[in-house]
Specification:
The protein has 293 residues and is of the alpha/beta class. Helix content is 39%, strand content 16%. Strand 2, helix 2 and strand 3 form a beta-alpha-beta unit. The longest helix has 23 residues. The termini are far apart.
């Protein structure tokens, strides 16, 4: 077993992004600029946004956090998005999910100018991704492709099984792995919570990507010998073993599966760190106006 080390790859790529950001800032006369909108005080969202802002600073981007209380109306939020769409000094715009129940996340996502949609969730970006056209790719799938590329994992002609069909990870990941690209050119099977006898599919996977949100869902008997295993899971449980008071577990039983896999991502230290890199690379592309069509 060899480790697909997200910490190593993310640090390497962030150093490259920082160099590119300096060069771009000289051309633009300003730093690449990411704006994040955060509604309410959800603990997980607070942590994620703080990490995004910190990483922007690390690579030399400008970052702005706009906060609203849970009482903000959908109309007020959409008005703020429209102002940012028209601001030429804003390159990337993200609205942190989840949103309060009275706000429609689909309306919010579609309100963001797709040329600033560095989360890659806008229907135009998802459609262009499916057609293998220039677009912003959702950050987590993008990060996974980057780590596969960094380690030279051969994907062409392989059987890739994706477990989980979310709009954020599973569905776009299945499209990316099937596209005529590198990484890509896989034969792809997409499994989900309604798939009967999932093990019959995962046992035949050369590349297994798991994003189902269940701790240790994939066990050793479900994995083919020498498979490449990508664990997207981030399952948090209370723990007395850590200073933070909680511990993260993946969707894959790492200790058991690692002995069968040829390559595997750890949790933490794997895909989560690459998600931030995907967001940063999208923001750099937005500042370069690479998605303008």
């Amino acid at each position: 077993m060899q480790l697909l080390d997200g910490k190593y790859v993310s640090n390497k790529l962030k150093q490259e992004i920082a160099v590119e950001a300096v060069e771009l800032a000289q051309k633009l006369g300003r730093k690449p600029h990411l704006v994040a909108i955060l509604v309410g005080h959800d603990g997980g969202s607070e942590t994620y946004v703080a990490s995004k802002m910190k990483n922007c600073e690390t690579v030399g981007f400008r970052s702005t956090l706009i906060r609203f209380e849970n009482t903000v109306t959908e109309t007020e939020l959409l008005h703020q998005i429209e102002k940012l769409n028209l601001d030429h000094e804003v390159d990337g715009l993200i609205v942190q999910l989840p949103l309060p129940s009275h706000i429609d996340p689909e309306r919010v996502t579609e309100a963001i100018d797709y040329r600033k949609d560095v989360d890659g969730f806008h229907p135009i970006n998802l459609g262009r991704m499916q057609r293998n056209l220039p677009c912003f790719i959702p950050a987590t799938p993008y990060g996974i492709t980057l780590i596969l590329k960094e380690y030279g994992i051969e994907t062409a002609g392989k059987h890739c099984v994706v477990v989980g069909r979310s709009q954020i990870v599973g569905l776009p990941m299945s499209i990316l792995m099937a596209r005529n690209s590198q990484p890509g050119n896989c034969t792809v099977t997409l499994c989900h919570s309604k798939t009967e006898n999932i093990a019959s599919y995962t046992q035949n996977a050369d590349i297994l990507i798991v994003a189902i949100g269940k701790k240790n869902f994939i066990t050793a008997d479900m994995v083919k010998k020498d498979a490449v295993v990508i664990d997207v899971g981030m399952n948090r449980e209370s723990s007395n073993e850590t200073k933070s008071g909680f511990k993260l577990y993946g969707d894959v039983d790492f200790e058991a599966v690692a002995s069968k896999a040829s390559w595997i991502t750890p949790v933490p230290g794997g895909v989560g760190l690459m998600t931030i890199v995907g967001l940063l690379k999208n923001t750099l592309s937005a500042a370069r106006k690479e998605i303008y069509v």
